[in-house]
Design goal:
Elements lengths: L6 H16 L10 H24 L4 H8 L3 H8 L7 H10 L4 H5 L4
Length: 109
């Protein structure tokens, strides 16, 4: 297993995932192994940040889900990194949490 030690490596992988999505990944196009790793990493980072921001605001998963028009279980899957987020859904969640898409994608220590 490869450990990414530089921010530039992580950012490059995030770009690859973005390119795959733009190229039609949502329509079933297969990702390369490198893109799959980046996708998994991105979901993990976003999931962690979603939970952190929601808890900082003392909101429940149900409250956020209701604000953006999805079910509570679906939102819970986003927080656990089990579902991929469409860009428009991610923007709505970011707005409900009072943050930006970029902040949700940033890995924090």
């Amino acid at each position: 297993m490869r450990v990414f030690t530089k921010d530039s490596e992580i950012m490059n992988l995030l770009r690859l995932v973005g390119n795959a999505i733009a190229a039609g990944h949502a329509d079933g196009i297969e990702l390369t192994p490198e893109q799959q790793k980046a996708d998994k990493l991105t979901k993990k980072i976003i999931a962690k940040n979603l939970r952190k921001r929601r808890r900082e605001q003392n909101k429940t998963q149900g409250q956020i889900a209701c604000e953006i028009g999805i079910t509570t279980p679906t939102y819970g899957h986003y927080e656990r990194g089990r579902f991929s987020l469409e860009t428009d859904t991610l923007h709505r969640i970011a707005a409900a949490l009072g943050t930006t898409l970029n902040e949700l994608k940033e890995e924090r220590t």
